From TrEMBL:
<protein>
    <submittedName>
        <fullName>Circularly permuted type 2 ATP-grasp protein</fullName>
    </submittedName>
</protein>
<dbReference type="InterPro" id="IPR025841">
    <property type="entry name" value="CP_ATPgrasp_2"/>
</dbReference>
<dbReference type="InterPro" id="IPR051680">
    <property type="entry name" value="ATP-dep_Glu-Cys_Ligase-2"/>
</dbReference>
<dbReference type="Pfam" id="PF14403">
    <property type="entry name" value="CP_ATPgrasp_2"/>
</dbReference>
<dbReference type="InterPro" id="IPR016450">
    <property type="entry name" value="UCP005522"/>
</dbReference>
<feature type="domain" description="Circularly permuted ATP-grasp type 2">
    <location>
        <begin position="86"/>
        <end position="464"/>
    </location>
</feature>
Length: 487
């Protein structure tokens, strides 16, 4: 078969043992994928590679990149890998996902308000107090202070997987500075340009209104006695791995992108330096971590923050989104208790399940984990980006002993989970020039404001591009797909 006549899905084979998102049996697709498959089956390899290269060039020209840090902490800038075959979620399936994510985020926000005030859930021993107070993300500076509208988690990124049983499970919560929404919008723009006819045929829910919704959410939590709030995005700077996203969102919202050095505090009021003189700032969407946000309160050596901003915040003169101290709720050890947190505050059963989690600080869990490291995924509770994860089935005997030693040295720091069978999706592999099954997950994005909520209809489907890899993070060589929610 020559290159011209060879069709790109001719050689696709299902991965037995994993849930295939597209095919229920060999060459027999789920009904919601039929139109997309018909379109892709018409492509020859030559035609598909041409479109694929056009998209890569467009991403490069638009600066759609991310940074990977090497051992010397130098950033290696890369084009964000994007696969043209979309992930499709039927409307009924999406509705359950969205309802479950909203339920979870609502309960977590109530949890944060409680632990920084009355601490009822700790007194009732639903969540161990030691677990909260030993978290490096618990901030005493937030005790007794309630942000405008009682909202801590204005922007939430919830990671989900579909297991081999066909059910969705929550993998983790991202509540500090969740990244990735800019890639959702960029992916959609690229795919709509390449396959405009498909969007006409399928009724797909839009994602383009996210920046507008984000701005409106931020305005709902403006300080009191402020009519027309000035909103800014604070970035650590152009060398940050998510700088593309910071600049993208600021541009799409029509607000100013600033660094900490562009702002100053005077008499508990935050001002932005402009060529016309100081301008009062009311809402800060910060992409700077807690410990760097105010050198007068946290790290004194921080060059990224705004001296005095915490004082202005506690005085009620500026809103920070997300609120400092939210990271205590996305601690992977606290994740274990989120189903109980939902029942405690909402009186409801969780709509979406957690993955079974063992926290090594608990004696029974610690014993089980040490005896079964070879069958588990071991994760540090305070890392992100897929760093520090050990997958037991891929470790040598020596590496298993090293993991055990690490756990013993700091039991609070580690959790373990069964090795979940992430669903797979046909993905174009440039080395083999064929579509092959690759593991995927889904990051949803939800916004919470004062009497206003919004969930992006879709999210970021992340793909583990390496064969057999279960870690989908871009920092670990992962890519992404456009996610279509059918109307």
């Amino acid at each position: 078969m020559n290159e011209k006549s060879k069709k790109i899905l001719d050689l696709y084979r299902m991965d037995v043992g994993h849930f295939d998102e597209v095919f229920k049996m060999e060459h027999e697709p789920f009904s919601h994928y039929e139109n997309v498959l018909d379109r892709f089956k018409k492509f020859s390899l030559v035609d598909f590679e041409r479109i694929n290269n056009e998209v890569k060039t467009a991403f490069f020209n638009q600066g759609i990149t991310f940074a990977v840090y090497n051992e010397n902490k130098k950033a290696d800038e890369r084009i964000f890998p994007f696969d043209l075959f979309p992930r499709i979620i039927p409307n009924e399936e999406w509705n359950k996902l969205e309802t479950g994510v909203i339920q979870r985020n609502k309960a977590i926000n109530l949890f944060l308000d409680d632990i920084y005030h009355d601490k009822k859930i700790l007194k009732d021993k639903i969540v161990p107090a030691d677990l909260i107070f030993s978290s490096k993300n618990y901030l005493k500076e937030m005790e007794g202070f309630r942000p405008e509208g009682g909202i801590y988690t204005h922007i939430s990124g919830t990671d989900l997987i579909k297991h081999s049983d066909g059910e969705y499970y929550i993998l983790e919560d991202n509540l500090r500075c969740p990244s990735g929404v800019s890639y959702v919008l960029s992916n959609r723009m690229a795919l709509k340009k390449s396959f405009f006819d498909l969007f006409n045929k399928l009724k797909t829910k839009t994602v383009y209104q996210y920046p507008e919704e984000l701005l409106e959410i931020l305005k709902t939590v403006k300080p009191k006695n402020t009519d027309n709030p000035t909103v800014v995005v604070v970035t650590p700077g152009m060398y940050n791995s998510a700088y593309f996203e910071h600049s993208f969102l600021a541009q799409k919202m029509g607000v100013t992108l600033v660094e900490g050095r562009d702002l100053f505090v005077e008499k508990d009021i935050v001002y932005m330096k402009t060529i016309y003189g100081p301008k009062k700032v009311d809402v800060i969407y910060r992409r700077v971590d807690d410990e760097f946000i105010d050198p007068l309160v946290f790290r004194k050596d921080s060059m990224l923050g705004i001296p005095g901003v915490m004082s202005a915040y506690r005085a009620g003169n500026v809103t920070l989104a997300n609120a400092p101290g939210t990271g205590v709720a996305d601690d992977k050890a606290v994740y274990h208790y989120v189903p109980d947190i939902i029942k405690y505050y909402l009186g409801e059963e969780p709509i979406l399940n957690n993955v079974q989690t063992y926290h090594c600080e608990k004696d029974s869990d610690f014993k089980y984990v040490l005896e079964n490291v070879n069958k588990l995924v071991v994760k540090p509770v305070d890392e992100s980006g897929g760093y520090g994860i050990s997958i037991g089935t891929r470790l040598t005997k020596e590496e298993i002993e090293e993991v055990k030693t690490r756990i013993k040295s700091d039991r609070r720091k580690y959790i373990a989970q069964p090795i979940m069978s992430l669903s797979v999706h046909p993905t174009f592999v440039e080395e083999t020039k064929e579509f092959e099954p690759r593991h995927i997950d889904l990051r949803t994005f939800s916004l919470m404001g004062k009497n206003k909520n919004y969930t992006l209809k879709g999210g970021l489907t992340r793909v583990a591009l390496k064969r057999g890899n279960l870690i989908v993070n871009s920092s670990q060589g992962g890519g992404s797909k456009d996610t279509w929610v059918l109307d």
